[in-house]
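quick one
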Amino acid sequence: MLKNFPLHPELASTFAWQVDALYFLLVALSLFFTVAITIAIVFFIIKYRRRSDDERPKPIHGSIPLELAWSIVPLIMSLGVFALGAELYFRMYTPPENAIDVYAIGKQWMWKIQHPEGKREINELHVPVNQAVNMTMTSEDVIHAFSIPAFRTKRDVVPGRYTSMWFEATKVGEYHLFCAEYCGTEHSKMIGTVYVMEPDAYQGWLSGGVSGETMVEAGQRQFKQLGCETCHKSQNGRGPSLIGVFGKPVQLTSGEVVVADEAYMRESVLTPQSKVVYGYKPIMPTFQGQISEETLLQIITYIQSLSEEEE
Ligand code: CUA
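structure w/ dinuclear copper ion:
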């Protein structure tokens, strides 16, 4: 019924109803208190109006039960709202184990999407229904925000770092994709369509018209072309071997221990001197400005694959 009402887009993801429930709860609570307080104000204005010029009100010296009631009741209500919000927050920020990966890059003014299988698209996102999808996103220029109202999900896309968000679509269909952060003249044109497909149709779409190179293969090719392999392949290279490193803790020269995640990999490629692995010299050249965000993501998926093979 409310489908075409612009303030209430369709509910098409697993946590969409939860976001709405919380939203309507907040609206209901606010409405209730606005109305109740307004009525009380009007009522007391009339009831305690000054009836004659020399009338003086009787002073009131407080009431413990009343004080307790209006302190404890709102406390319980706000803690309740907090608990519901926190639960949803953790759910939205913890992608399930079985989520498939999709990579998005924002730039003025378009969305570039890469699927691990090699398929790429612009201002379109194809995903299977009833399958968790984890998006890893970055920007080439300014801050954008990836927003799919029907999924009730939105996350900033920030230059120089990876942000992620996940969702699980529950209904086959086409949905709006927006940039939800003002990013320049054509911000309003930075829009697209999300296609939620049946798993078979999605597989068919994935295999259609692909160059034949997956993201991992593309990353492997770049890894060779850029010469990363000369130092990072063997166990006794000038740089640390990257086999089995992804997701593991790494000891640095500074004594610090960091986890080798996407952000660490990205930093190590662009500004290699900032975190040098213990036992190695800071001799790696920077690749800042030499490789695109797409290539960087491909290389990271390749390094990631070096850890998966080992298990
Ligand atoms: Cu990108 Cu607004």
